[in-house]
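Long-time lurker, first post. I've been practising inverse folding by hand and with some scripts of my own, and I keep getting stuck on stretches where the structure tokens seem ambiguous. Below is the full token string for one chain I'm working on. Before anyone asks, I'm not after the true native sequence, just a reasonable design that respects the backbone. If someone could post their per-position residues I'd love to compare against what I wrote down in my notebook.
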């Protein structure tokens, strides 16, 4: 299903502008993530698509050429998965998945066949007759997904579906969810505030800030070509380099860096993986802390900015806290961007 959103805005009573006029086009089978900090309006946008919230006048929501702007939640034929799962604890897995189909009064045989189909797809065969209370968080999440998919929705909406899980399980389920959504081939919109999750699951990510889509693109485009300092910070944790810009030179406390182009009035940012500890480097800094993380060391460098700047360092050894080191940053790795509106 293709989803076309035009001029979607939301002003809550009292005047809070949760969402400024937004346009978005999502292709058939595409998975789009709405990514942004708390309060940026992502849930509001999702709830408007679902029909749980009414947009301001002038909005248009079209599902495959059909205007659904004024349709109720039920007639939109969407599937939803929430953080809390909202499963019925006293029912079995099978009972939960079939519940919506029963409400639709589908014939028994049809219900059974659809329930079996999603149980197999979500690899829940071994748990089908268990009660929900006898499942792990990850298994419950798969049941919630299976239940949302059983009525064959036109679009699947997911609101922070992994946020109730612990960190290790989240990582595993993130990849699993990405795979399942693609197997379903369904158009899906996924709300999260976690950049790794958005990048792992979505074909395109819409980065939101203060009620607006700051940038939409593939994870690679957002990472390599962020449009603003805000997007660069949010996707890939770019850090601002505080210094004085004079044409194509950035004067830092510890030295001068060459910029790829004149940057007066812009913001210069860098990512931890692009800072090299290099005895020949043009900038000096002091090592504050060193954290060994297995694949690399994470080094906090002081004396460059107000707060520390982090560098990822690979190799068999690392400098020690208190040592003075020299750094280099390839000029093409520096991000020169308009100052982010929501820094
Ligand atoms: N029912 C409401 N009445 C008034 N203001 C609301 C209502 N719901 C949300 N808001 C406000 O609208 C803005 C956007 O909220 P929304 O829930 O869409 O943000 P979000 O990006 O999903 O945040 P979170 O990640 O914290 O859920 C916030 O400032 C919020 O306080």
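-- Answer (accepted) --
I ran through it position by position. Result:
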């Amino acid at each position: 299903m293709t989803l076309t959103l035009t001029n979607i805005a939301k002003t809550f009573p009292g005047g809070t502008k949760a969402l400024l006029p937004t346009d978005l086009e999502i292709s058939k089978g595409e998975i789009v993530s709405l990514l942004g900090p708390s309060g940026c309006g992502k849930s509001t946008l999702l709830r408007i698509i679902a029909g749980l919230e009414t947009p301001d006048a002038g909005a248009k929501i079209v599902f495959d050429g059909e205007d659904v702007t004024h349709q109720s939640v039920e007639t939109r034929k969407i599937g939803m998965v929430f953080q809390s799962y909202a499963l019925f604890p006293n029912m079995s897995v099978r009972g939960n998945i079939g519940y919506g189909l029963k409400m639709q009064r589908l014939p028994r045989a049809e219900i059974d066949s659809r329930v079996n189909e999603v149980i197999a797809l979500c690899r829940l065969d071994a748990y089908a007759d268990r009660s929900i209370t006898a499942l792990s968080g990850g298994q419950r999440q798969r049941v919630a997904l299976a239940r949302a998919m059983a009525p064959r929705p036109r679009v699947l909406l997911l609101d922070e579906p992994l946020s109730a899980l612990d960190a290790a399980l989240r990582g595993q389920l993130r990849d699993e969810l990405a795979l399942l959504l693609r197997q379903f081939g369904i158009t899906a919109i996924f709300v999260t505030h976690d950049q790794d999750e958005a990048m792992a699951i979505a074909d395109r990510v819409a980065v939101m800030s203060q009620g607006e889509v700051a940038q939409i693109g593939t994870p690679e485009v957002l990472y390599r070509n962020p449009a603003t300092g805000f997007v660069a910070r949010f996707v890939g944790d770019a850090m601002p380099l505080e210094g004085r810009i004079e044409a194509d030179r950035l004067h830092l406390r510890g030295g001068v860096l060459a910029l790829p182009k004149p940057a007066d009035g812009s913001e210069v940012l860098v990512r931890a993986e692009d800072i090299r500890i290099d005895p020949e480097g043009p900038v000096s800094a002091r090592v504050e802390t060193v954290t060994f993380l297995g694949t690399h060391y994470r080094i906090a460098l002081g004396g460059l900015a107000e707060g520390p700047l982090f560098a990822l360092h690979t190799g068999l050894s690392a400098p020690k806290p208190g040592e003075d080191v020299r750094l280099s940053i390839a000029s093409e790795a520096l991000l020169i961007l308009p100052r982010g509106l929501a820094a």
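A couple of notes from the structure itself: Residues 12, 16, 18, 36, 38-44, 193 surround adenosine-5'-triphosphate (CB under 6 Å). The chain has two domains: 3-234, 239-337. Happy to go over any region you disagree with.
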